[in-house]
Amino acid sequence: MSYMRGLPIAATAALLLAVSAVTSHADEVTGRITSINPDLGTVTLDDGNIYLLPSSDQVGLLVVGQQVTITFEERDDGMLIASKLTTET
Questions:
Q1: Contact 48, 33 (CB under 8 A)
Q2: How confident is the model at residue 9 (pLDDT cuts 50, 70, 90)?
């Protein structure tokens, strides 16, 4: 029955690993739009990165040179997926 003492520790460790694998971390960036691709629903900022917008409807409201803040997550394949975009006034 000595293996039973280690079971709660192993179960806790497995749970922590599972939660950390599911938990994602959102980043935020502020910059100026240097290009807009309405067909793909993306914007490129002055940091050189391309961000996929949460809604292609937003693309028509944006203009090159506009200052925006984007909340995003980076997928395993490196794609930057925006969850929120706000324009600076």
A1: no
A2: low
- Residue 69, token pair as written in the block: 């803040």
With a cut of 60, say whether residue 18 has pLDDT above it. no
Q: How remote is the C-alpha of 59 from its chain's centroid?
A: 18
Cα 10 to Cα 76: distance, rounded to the nearest angstrom: 27
Determine the CATH number of domain 27-87. Answer: 2.40.50.500
pTM of the model: 0.70
- Gap between the Cα atoms of 50 and 33, Å rounded: 10
CA distance 43 to 74: 15
Contacts of 64 (CB under 8 A, 6+ apart): 33, 34, 35, 36
Q: State how far the Cα of 52 lies from the Cα of 70, in Å rounded to an integer.
A: 10
Domain locations along the chain: 27-87
* Cβ proximity of 73 and 58 under 8 Å: no
